[in-house]
Amino acid sequence: MTDEVRRLGAMFAATDDEITDWYTVPRRADRWLRVNFIASLDGAATHDGRSAGLGTPADKRVFGLLRRLADVILIGAGTVRAEGYGGQLLDDAGRAWREERGLPPHPVVAVVSARLDLDPDSPLFSAAPVRPLVLTTRQAPAERRAALAEVSDVLDSGGTAVDTRLMRELLAERGLRQVHCEGGPHLLGTLIEEGTVDELCLTLSPRLEGGTARRITDGGRITPTGMTLAHVLTGDDGTLLLRYVRAQTVS
User: Fold this and answer.
1) Architecture of domain 5-246 in CATH?
2) pLDDT digits (tens, 9 = 90+) for 217-245
3) CB atoms within 10 A of CB 85
4) How far apart are CA 37 and CA 84, in angstroms?
5) How would DSSP label each residue in 172-240?
6) How many CB atoms lie within 10 A of CB 91?
7) 62 membership: H or E segment, kind and range
8) Short-list 181, 175, 211, CA closest to 198
9) Cis (ω within 30 of 0) for the bond into 76?
10) Residue spans per domain, the chain
């Protein structure tokens, strides 16, 4: 199994620079929220409770390249607990790529958590190459807020629930305009409901999972949102990497 990736119908495998170019937003100064998920062919978002269990070499390669483009990597607290985050999220080549283009070597990591159910001693904070952000609510528990404020910048993004529209404003004020969201399903449901998704990168893993695994969205009101297919990439193992951008109108 290889990590070769090509455009659908292309004769030659793509280079890292070509793939990165295909996903680059035309103007970095624009605010842009990209969401990245993987699912099985029958719609499961996890294998054994983790999205990483569905990963393929092609998906992992593109996933790493998308992180290079981000000002901030956005993650829901549940995904942090389930998947495990901490330390360097980019490899040496990715950090060098960013520095060559005048970007900080590592994106900021921002965690969305209304209840602040996060361990301040976890590698997410203790091994972070850049001080993380925690996006929470004004009613979050005071003791947890104080503990997390020692290891991160805690920002209020709503009263009783995180408002993702306000969240985007707060990130942009810090110069974090290119947002790469890595889950989870509850956060995606909120982003869809509040109309803050600009792009969905969806990998279809070439497998049937069965069972009762979650979808890539969980919660939030039904909010039909038109999307336009930007491109399709394929891996030699049958992986499909779909890129959709937000349409102007819903038909």
Assistant:
1) 3-Layer(aba) Sandwich (3.40)
2) 988 899 999 999 999 999 988 999 999 99
3) 21
4) 16
5) HHTT--EEEE---HHHHHHHHHTT---EEEEEEESS---TT---S--SS------EEEEEEEEETTS-E
6) 12
7) helix 57-68
8) 181
9) no
10) 5-246
